[in-house]
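G., before I forget:
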Amino acid sequence: MWDWAFTIDILPVLARAAVITVQATAIGFVIAALLGLVLASIRLSSPAAGLVVAILVELVRSTPLLIQIFFLFFVLPKVGIVLDAFTAGVLAIGLHYAAYCSEVYRAGFENVPRGQWEASIALNLSPWTTFKDIILPQALPPVVPALGNYLIALFKETPLLSAIAVVELMQRAKIIGSETFRYTEPVTLVGLFFLVMSLLSAGLVRVLDGWLSRRYG
Amino acid sequence: MWIRVLAAMLAATLTAIVILSFQDGFKVFVPGLLQGAWLTVQIAVLGALLAVVMALTAALAKLYGPLPLRWLAVAYIEIFRGTSALVQLFWLYFVLPQFGIFMDAFPVAVLALGLNIGAYGAEVVRGAIRAVPKGQWEASTALNMTRAQMLRRIILPQAFVAMIPPWGNLFIELVKSTSLVSLITLADLTFKAQQMNQATLQTVPIFTLVLLLYLAISLTITICMRFTEGWAAKGVLHGKAS
Amino acid sequence: MTEMPMVRYENVSKRYGAFTVLDNLNLDVARGEKVSIIGPSGSGKTTVLRMLMTLESINGGTLWVDGEPMTHMSKNGRLVPADARHIRRIRAKIGMVFQSFNLFPHMTALGNCIEAPITVLGMGRKEAEERAAELLDMVGLSAKKDHYPGQLSGGQQQRVAIARALAMRPKIMLFDEVTSALDPELVGEVLQVIRRIGAEHDLTMLMVTHQMGFAKEFSDRVCFFYQGKICEQGPPAQIFGNPQNERTRQFLNAVLEAG
Ligand SMILES: Nc1ncnc2c1ncn2[C@@H]1O[C@H](COP(=O)(O)OP(=O)(O)OP(=O)(O)O)[C@@H](O)[C@H]1O
Ligand SMILES: [Mg+2]
């Protein structure tokens, strides 16, 4: 049932595809983390801008990532922006998770006591200094674990890129399957890879969480 | 206030769908997409039922089951949360037949999505049960209830209220992940869109309609869950208990 | 023309919705004067300070600081609502100490005291640190300057907060029940520091307090607030020794009985 020789054969090929998966994860998460912070900051700045951002976030979270990937990949060329599959896909993933991350940051901001804003005003700090030196350093550490969980979620969703033929792990496994008519080993290996990586990172996040709450809690 | 914004968004979405379905360039796609949306809804509803059953079973097994059952529950939860729905879908679809188990794409879809969301739901249920104050258990023990009675009559009704918002999020996740079934050849909304897109290259109208349709489904669920939340908080916590 | 007071509330009103917290308040505080504000809970004492610190907007009237309007500025001879720059310039003259300290928890005692001098006043780090060290020394905390707020007692935190406010060289200091969050045995050390800065610095002070003994001994004038109005004011000897108003008498009796 399980062919070990075949397994050894396809391992290096899958390993190379795993590099693409990791790259997509890293770039996608950088976009998500930065853009999410920007969105959450806009929400702080004014109620009207906040409502616009809130609606955008709701729109992004209410529609499937797969459709968003298709949308960027197929629709952007119509308006003259031609992106290769990897770029379009990673961008879609980054935007999608930016919506989730912005909610995480927002919770972080809300947990900073009002007195911190007031003390900053009393010291005549500028809004920018207040945000950068006083609020952000207090809002960020507690939300790092939540961001970590979204990093893992994002990582697990990268197989969606296979739908626009980015040759990451899942696509490679499917290609191997269609060429050899053996799906068991490649698909199972991909599953195991994700399982092991997620469990490991979830463990890391838990350790980080404990450390942070001891340090800042 | 927030629920009003959601309702306004839903109204705007539905209006947009109706207006667009009378526009040339859009209207040819509407019947096919609605067909796809119907399949999407079917998979979502059946998947949700399976998810709720799995979540309750796994959570109770993990909390109160005998040791082997507890391990089984932990394994189920960790495996299905540790990989994505797409990987699970492909595994069930491509690998099971090689073990001699043949299933149609539709049951595979319901099974994969239901199991996936059920694993997350199990943690939601478990968290909500554990959040019920210890005094409630002690009071029920003092009243000489059996453990099953305590769970059914005292603990779960209170945990239920805390579970609704996270379940709302999970149902949205479920609706969104139904789009994956297009990748195992089921003719859902996403599949129809892809098919029409390849046939006509009318990318913009097709994907605009598809986004609006998903949005309508998701917003409907979100709004319903908000109402359930309000109703449960009133009915369970203030009206009857304590 | 007489000299303008350091702080002037001119017909100032404050409302929350339909609820009027302060009704046409008129209050002048002279340069270097130390005014205590007393009164029952909810009478609007905190609001008086928070409006001056621009933490609350006002619904009517004008606030004057050091001879200039704060909430308004003159433009072509007319008074128009102040812009952010104007407010920040005036606000530089005011410091505030909060009931709940509001120290920045991610910065040391010293860090708390140098943050604003460096970023707002543009002071060099070295100079800021020297000054902060002096101030921390004055509040008796030179040994704790590298401690984080979480590692300090309430009294110590409040003394750091006082040093932090002084580091901005304000002309006016606002104290809102700065000892109310403290255990009784820590109240003395904070009052001692306030006494000292009152004597050593040329500051105008406005303080809300429930420490009647301290208000009596320390302030030049005591204002008794009742339902958003100054019900009675005068030198401490008069207010505490021979109050004219029935409400003042009732309040003082109640407080002294409890204390
Ligand atoms: N943000 C707000 N919204 C609505 N009402 C408020 C708000 N802040 C204060 N108030 C009301 O304004 C009134 C005056 O409040 P203030 O804090 O100035 O009282 P205080 O005299 O300082 O009382 P205490 O001695 O309890 O501190 C109170 O009745 C309070 O309920
Ligand atoms: Mg007060």
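Residues 103-169 of chain C form one domain. The CA atoms of residues 216 and 236 of chain C lie 5 Å apart.

More on Monday.
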